[in-house]
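Changelog-linked ticket: zinc ion example.
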Amino acid sequence: MSDKILFRGEDLEQFNKWRTVEKDHCIACGSRDFELWATAGSYKAVKCVKCGLIWMNPFLNDEGLGKYYADYIGRRRLNNDLKMEQRKIQYQSDREFIEHFISDGKILDVGCNGGFFLEALSTKFEKHGIEIDPEAVVYAQKTQKQFGKNILCVALERAPYENSSFDMIAMRGTIEHLSDPVNAIKKVSQLLKKGGYYYITATPNGDSFAADLFRDKWTLFHPVQHIWHFSPKTLSLICSRFGLKLIAKDFPYLGTPYENARENVKIVAKAIKSREQNPSAELPISPPFWENMMALVFEKTK
Ligand SMILES: [Zn+2]
């Protein structure tokens, strides 16, 4: 038997020497007033007292993140058919939401993986994608007939596009992984045309009931992968600095493949009760729940 501290079966302590990026202020509102929010092993998450942004502090530097994802990616997608199937259904709902606002033009998916979300969108779009995992890029280039040639293996900051060239830029389950989301959002704004849309979707909502109740046992809490837990408010604070205005938000749960309202409510009710009886009671890992995930649409207004 190993005496290693594991986080849901993963040895995250092995990355400690790369855990060197520490913020002395909140990247959303600038406040230096933050408090401990959750711990997992030696990892700590803090929460800004002023705006509510939650982040891992400190978190892994880019070298450490590279090491972590290098052996993570293979395990993740290729051998999990059920998850792929659920995600496919979710792509349709993400598509319906964004196509209320835009249904043609030139679009970019940042962190596009194998091009699966782009594939689910209308063929009226001219589709582009960037992804830093080389294997996913090769896969997308081979399998995506319509737009495979438009998938590049490059980080957003070095993406070779003209300013004001996209009608929509999407980040699906991406922004919470980025070590410098402010710079990424600045770049998104530069690449968007005036009147274009920035679509953030399938991103954990740190301002949700289950996040607050379960903390380190929240299903979306991950000390290495999810550096930031944003909310509509905290993302608006950052986006508004770059001329991006929040125009719509959604919290998909009912009707998603993750919905199981009756069971999920029972588990949450039980957790509330056990915390009432004992404030330091150990909780199970939280179920999917209302407001856990968010989808936000920003419009570039200037
Ligand atoms: Zn703040």
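Closing comment: Example verified and attached. The pocket of zinc ion is lined by residues 26, 28-29, 31, 48, 50-51, 53 (CB under 6 Å). The chain has a mean pLDDT of 94.
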